[in-house]
Design a protein that fits this description.
Chain lengths: ~525, ~140
């Protein structure tokens, strides 16, 4: 019999290789396929459409006999987690062998590319614009307008760069797509390059994703004759979060420090090597083949709400019972994602907070869970969708500590180019520490007799420190060059707003200690 | 010509035709020697017609590149938000005890396995759903 087991990195981390080996030893034909995205069931074993998960090697015999009922989930495609989704970008997830070009063709692969090649590049760009596709990396900028800017630029040398530097905690859709359906990304890139007139296309990804790199490289080798003469290449970053910011990414790709560039000039006009460059996220590019296939653009634009069109692969992560990838049209409320689909917390405790949009996204309080998944609705709630990662925390989470971590992360990962981020983040950690430790006492310099203009009182109360933190966050938000410094205030201020009790008086013992040593 | 000089020369030659070859070269040099020191920086600078300051600026910017050798096996533990939500911080004391001086623990922010954390990586091997015992075993088995 044919046994299907994923070789996605997450399935491997959960022990898929050992399970696959056990089935192979029994003489079964094992197909290593992409992951369905039901992560709590990995390693998931599928035989004739029926699934078992999570499977350990000692259950292999029972599964061969059609038993192991306690871990059987029945027909995989009918599982409520799968049946409730609207899969476009991840339509092949769980169904194909990732680097099999035959599997890809048999499931509608290259349809968009074939049609695009019969079209005028300007018409392709018009279709992408009409589909309403917005950049899936976080900023939500309309893809068609970006492409048009590059296409209209005068320079004959142009580039397509895919931002696969998915550094946000709580996000894994880019990784899953590269590992599970690499040809779809290649097809999208080929269409983009043809539409704007680029000769070279790069995928810049992270060194933390070795499996995705290997799969992409293998797929590019196999697809080379189809996309020729376009040259395509994978480039690996070196562990710098800020390189997910498009201008840092371009510097890094050029072999420089990953410092952000001031905009303008836009990368669409002066990007890689100073030439016009399309920089799109993996999910944006992967949505392109579907849009370019016959009638795809119209179908795409029908999904979603208002100005948020199409589907979004939402990544449900953190302390959640049923975590994984859930692709659905925009507009789904957060409560449905967390409770109905996610099944609540893994620990069984009440949900305390949900961070949407990675480490730079706001912490959302359960009172706001009816907010629909839509760019504008989130902006209105002083939050952001980002790369659509949602990370769930239970009531044991210390939100003051999480706010401190946000500042600490920004300080560790700042590229150093602009002052609000480079210095603001360090000061942010210090202020949060002082709030948690009962305010600030006069320091040794202020106590020195020559400092006669120094404040005579005891320093600052925690409440006064909050004013300082608010000011600092405003400065970072409006003064930083890129999203790292500019968005770090979201997790910090949202945590302070909803859970102030997690900030004050956390370190009374520390305060007592300070007083005795003062 | 020392063998190091020769090897670095070969790596540079291999990447020379690429656009922006410095990062791929640094990755290969680090893979070959385990670190990128001042000597390597000088050789790469010469090969690419850059100043050593240019190369050093890049080496020191990225978390992946090390400037000194460290022969210990490395275990990367994800301590970003999603793994924190699943309790990685509570495992760190045990992890440090298990590591001692033999294993180097490195904090990374996100291995992309956020729904099955806490996670760790040793080389290209990934480990998910770790508890204290599981993480201790991963660290003890790291070579």
């Amino acid at each position: 019999m044919i046994v299907r087991i994923s070789d996605d990195a997450l399935a491997l981390a959960c022990g898929a290789d050992a399970v696959a080996e056990a089935f192979a030893k029994k003489g079964h034909e094992v197909h290593r396929v992409s992951s369905w995205g039901m992560h709590w069931l990995e390693p998931l074993v599928e035989v004739n459409g029926v699934g078992w998960g999570p499977v350990t090697t000692d259950r292999v015999d029972e599964i061969c006999d059609g038993k192991a009922d306690d871990i059987c989930i029945g027909p995989v495609e009918a599982h409520p987690f799968i049946a409730g989704q609207q899969r476009l970008t991840f339509a092949r997830a769980g169904k194909t062998r990732p680097t099999s070009i035959d599997d890809y063709e048999a499931t509608g692969g290259w349809e968009g590319w074939k049609r695009a090649r019969t079209m005028d590049p300007a018409d392709i760009i018009r279709e992408v614009t009409e589909s309403g596709l917005r950049g899936r990396g976080g900023a939500g900028f309309p893809a068609g307008i970006k492409w048009k800017t590059v296409a209209d630029a005068k320079n004959p040398r142009k580039y397509v760069v895919v931002n696969a530097d998915e550094g946000d905690s709580g996000t894994f859709a880019d990784r899953m797509l590269m590992e599970g359906d690499p040809f779809q990304l290649i097809e999208g890139m080929a269409i983009a390059a043809y539409a704007v007139g680029a000769q070279t296309a790069y995928i810049y990804t992270r060194s933390e994703y070795p499996h995705a790199i290997a799969k992409m490289e293998e797929a590019i080798r196999k697809a080379a004759p189809i996309i020729s003469p376009l040259h395509m290449e994978v480039r690996t970053g070196a562990g710098a979060y800020v390189c997910g910011e498009e201008t840092s990414l371009l510097n890094s790709l050029e072999g420089k420090r990953g410092e952000v560039r001031a905009k303008p000039p836009l990368p669409a006009l002066e990007g890689f090597m100073g030439c016009p460059t399309v920089v799109n996220n993996v999910l944006t590019m992967a949505a392109i083949p579907h849009i370019l296939a016959e009638g795809g653009a119209e179908e795409y634009a029908k999904l979603g709400i208002d100005r948020s069109k199409g589907t979004m692969p939402i990544q449900i992560a953190g302390n959640i019972k049923h975590g994984g990838l859930y692709e659905v049209a925009f507009g789904i409320p957060l409560s449905k994602l967390i409770y109905d689909i996610g099944g609540g917390t893994q620990s069984g405790r009440p949900v305390k907070a949900v961070q949407v949009g990675g480490p730079l996204g706001a912490y959302i309080h359960p009172d706001q869970f009816d907010i629909p998944f839509d760019y504008e609705a989130y902006a209105q709630a002083d939050a952001l969708i980002g790369h659509a990662g949602i990370t769930v925390f239970d009531d044991t989470a210390d939100m003051g500590a999480m706010a401190r971590f946000a500042m600490e992360f920004c300080a560790a990962e700042s590229c150093g180019k602009c002052t609000p981020c480079r210095i603001g983040a360090v000061r942010g950690v210090e202020i949060i520490d002082r709030i948690r430790h009962g305010g600030r006492k006069r320091d040794t310099i202020e106590l020195a007799p020559v400092m006669h203009n120094a404040p005579k009182d005891a320093g600052r109360l925690p409440e006064q420190e909050v004013g300082l933190l608010t000011d600092l966050c405003e400065t970072m938000k409006f003064g930083s060059l890129c999203a790292l410094g500019g968005f770090t205030p979201y997790p910090v201020m949202s945590a302070l707003k909803h859970w102030p009790e997690d900030f004050f008086g956390k370190g009374q013992e520390q305060k007592a200690l300070d007083e005795t040593t003062a | 010509m020392s063998s190091k000089e020769q090897k670095i020369g070969e790596i540079i030659a291999e990447h020379h035709g690429r656009e922006g070859p410095l990062l791929p070269i640094l990755h290969d040099v680090q893979k070959e020697f385990g670190f990128v020191d001042a000597e390597a920086e000088t050789l790469i600078a010469k090969g690419l017609n850059l100043t050593r300051a240019d190369v050093h600026g890049v080496v020191s910017f990225y978390h992946d590149f090390h400037q000194q050798p460290d022969p210990r096996p490395e275990v990367q533990i994800c301590r970003a938000e999603a793994c924190k939500a699943r309790g990685v911080e509570a495992l760190m004391a045990d992890a440090e005890t298990a590591a001692g001086n033999r294993v180097k623990l490195k904090t990374v922010y996100c291995l992309g396995l956020c729904s099955v954390g806490p996670n760790a990586r040793v080389g290209d091997d990934l480990h998910a759903r770790l508890d204290a015992a599981g993480l201790t075993k991963v660290i003890e088995n790291a070579r």
